[in-house]
């Protein structure tokens, strides 16, 4: 039985990860909704996590998978805090458009 990485090939993982990361960057740069910006950031983090796991499997080393664990924990904390801030802003301003958030500067 072949390793799954040998069957698919690491270049396909790299290609998929690059596509996901570019989609995330596109979402952050061109979308105005804060929720979609958070989702785009999560897509970028998952693209990096996919590469960590692929290279970890390729090199037969578990350090990449440990990094993925910490990255997912940080991403979950970031989303929890970010969503709390967005809900608070929505209650006060009535919109989560990123353009309105520029008015929060002092």
What would you say this structure looks like, in words?
With about 110 residues, this protein is mainly α. The protein has a single domain, classed as Helix Hairpins. The protein has 5 helices and no strands. Helix 2 (about 10-30) runs antiparallel to helix 3 and helix 3 (about 35-60) runs antiparallel to helix 4. About 10% of the residues are buried. The model has no long low-confidence stretch (mean pLDDT about 90).
What overall geometry do the principal axes of the alpha carbons give?
elongated
Query: Class by helix and strand content?
Result: mainly alpha
Report the sheet with the most strands, covering strand number, pairing sense and barrel closure: none
How many discrete domains?
1
**Strand content of the residues, in percent?**
under 5%
Radius of gyration over alpha carbons? 18 Å
- Contiguous low-pLDDT stretches (5 residues minimum) are none
Membrane topology: Multi-pass membrane protein
Main location: membrane
Protein name: NADH-quinone oxidoreductase subunit K
Family: Belongs to the complex I subunit 4L family.
């Amino acid at each position: 039985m072949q390793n799954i990485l040998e069957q698919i090939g690491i270049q396909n993982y790299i290609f998929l990860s690059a596509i996901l990361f570019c989609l995330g960057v596109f979402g952050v740069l061109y979308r105005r909704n804060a929720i979609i910006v958070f989702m785009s950031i999560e897509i970028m983090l998952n693209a990096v996590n996919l590469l960590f796991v692929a290279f970890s499997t390729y090199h037969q080393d578990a350090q990449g998978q440990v990094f993925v664990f910490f990255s997912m924990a940080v991403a979950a904390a970031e989303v929890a805090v970010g969503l709390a801030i967005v809900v608070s802003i929505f209650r006060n301003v009535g919109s989560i458009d990123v353009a309105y958030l520029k008015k929060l500067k002092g």
